[in-house]
Please model this.
Amino acid sequence: MHCDAYAAGRCASCSEITVPYAQQLVAKQRHARELLAAFAHMQWLEPLASMEAGFRNKAKMVVAGSVDAPTLGILDANGAGVDLSDCPLYPATIRGVFPVLARFIATARIPPYDVPTRRGELKYLLLTLDEATGTLMLRFVLRSTESLSRIRKHLPALLEEAPALRVVSANLQPAHAALLEGDEEIQLTPDESLPMRVNGLTLHLRPRSFFQTNTTLAQAMYRQAREWVDEAAPSSLWDLYCGVGGFALHCADGRRAVLGIEIAPEAIASAIRSRDEMGVANLEFRTGDATAFARDAARQPELAIVNPPRRGIGTELARVLDEGDVRWVVYSSCNAASLARDLAAMPGFAPLRARVFDLFPHTRHYEVMCLLRRRG
Model:
């Protein structure tokens, strides 16, 4: 895929962009198989490819430059802004709102944060798109509340010029550090969550909720997990690290008992709202640490879905599952290296199948999902 920013040397984020996409997919499959070579009897399904361009539903844009000429993109080695408003990874709806936001920064007089001098206010613009409806969530990441009154004053004009904006908030991140967001979120619109249509279900994303950056492939992952769960036909299921409840909501059928666990309260609030709108019985969500919950639970289900961060589930949760009563595990991983370590720590389970989902074209990153069954 051609990218003007890469060709001009302005951005090197997509390290594999010069490799034909079919070769990228082969390389990721090979990498995953090499890392999981210890499980030689596992069946590898065909990898699922992404669109090469326009696949990202999120934009995390560093704001730099000046009030009258802001850049939206990244910083160079000297801390100067590099504008990536034309990045081909973003769909047209996201790219179309970038110039509107640049004009808003100038109109509301929000000084971009300058990293070398540690001055300014606006650090990031964070956008999330629901592709089904074309609606957007926008977050201003600010150093302080200094610009907040001006943002509020000019927000009606922004919403009129960019009617796709449904949810707008301001996040305060005062530290001079490489942190994307802070602890305080200030809601600026009546709507507090963005409905995301996923396989016919509605997931509600609040400003600090996590959702995969590639909606099409996220939908494929949910469908794959549901297929494996239905095949195992458990009467009870845990969804650990459940986020906004994507796996749990897809696997709940009103008969099996499904319980989702997530440490982020906002994500659980979103999951509960989705459950209530669906009206599905035997589906519960709780806020808590996945490892502590599994360790302290009086009983374990027949099947557990785990979707941990890059570090994996770790030795304690692996041991709890391995020594417990869970018969099946669906493990969704964004890091095949930590997945290999976790599977090695669960010798009581036999990995049956695996599949690569290429959520991140033109990089070396990918997701891989495995189905495990207890031995014996």
Summary: The first helix runs from residue 4 to 7.
